[in-house]
């Protein structure tokens, strides 16, 4: 197991904790990122686009002109695709773009991303992160003290914290996610991660099914 330092919001070391090797020291498999990100983005695709085919447009009950004697091609309805206002041939219709990916692959992709970020020193563990008031400025100052400003940052917390979440929401380049919603797409979009000690313990329990990792003062 690797050991990681824990810092306070003032960027002072407050202790250390052991990280599960299965979560933060696994093999890095970048080829899994594409499959998982593609799956996540497909689920976000609304798929509400819609067009009408010749059977759905209104009108067209009578032939545009008689069958013979006009010198023109035969036409059965003005709802045909070649007429203005007619139906659309093979147009898009509402559909679900989502597709399945094995749970093992999804889990391996997330473990790979976490392991890569840990190897690159991109994960900062903070002892506790909370706010007792709605103050965006205060959170901006905290991020600067931790030396994490200037680049996209993903903040991972253990559970719902309304004031903290509201304070971070308006900061450009800052993403916030609860540990049960941590995913590959959000990790890859942010080159830096700030995670609370409680969130690390919850994450390790979620990914391994074991008790949370130990911490030492």
Question: Which structural traits does this protein have?
Answer:
disordered C terminus, Ribosomal Protein L4, Chain: A, single chain, 2 domains, alpha/beta
Description:
By secondary structure, this protein is α/β, with parallel strands linked by helices. The chain folds into 2 domains: 2-45 and 99-216, Ribosomal protein L4/L1 (Ribosomal Protein L4, Chain: A); 48-96, no CATH class. 33% of the residues lie in helices and 16% in strands. The protein has helices at 21-24, 31-44, 103-119, 136-145, 162-169, 184-189, 197-208; strands at residues 2-7, 13-19, 123-126, 153-157, 174-178, 192-196, 215-216. A 7-stranded mixed β-sheet has the order 5-4-6-3-1-2-7, sandwiched between helices. Strand 1 (2-7) and strand 2 (13-19) form a beta hairpin. Helix 2 packs across helix 3 (103-119) and helix 4 crosses helix 5. It starts with a strand and ends with a strand.
């Amino acid at each position: 197991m690797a050991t990681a330092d824990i810092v306070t919001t003032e960027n002072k070391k407050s202790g250390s904790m052991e990280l599960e090797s299965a979560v933060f020291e696994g093999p890095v498999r970048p080829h899994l990122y594409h499959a998982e990100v593609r799956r996540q983005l497909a689920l976000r695709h609304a798929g509400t686009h819609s067009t009408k085919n010749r059977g759905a447009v209104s009108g067209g009950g009578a032939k545009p002109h008689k069958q013979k004697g006009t010198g023109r091609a035969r036409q059965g309805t003005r709802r045909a695709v070649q007429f203005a206002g007619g139906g659309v041939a093979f147009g898009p219709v509402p559909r679900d773009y989502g597709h399945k990916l094995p749970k093992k692959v999804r889990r391996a992709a997330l473990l790979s991303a976490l392991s890569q970020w840990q190897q690159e020193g991109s994960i900062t563990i903070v002892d506790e992160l909370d706010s007792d008031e709605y103050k965006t400025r205060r959170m901006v100052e905290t991020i600067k003290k931790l030396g994490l400003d200037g680049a996209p940052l993903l903040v991972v917390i253990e559970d719902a914290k309304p004031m903290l979440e509201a304070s971070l929401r308006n900061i450009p380049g800052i993403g916030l996610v609860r540990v049960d919603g941590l995913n590959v797409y959000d990790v890859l979009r942010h080159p830096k991660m700030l995670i609370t000690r409680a969130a690390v313990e919850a994450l390790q329990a979620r990914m391994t099914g074991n008790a949370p990792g130990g911490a030492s003062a």
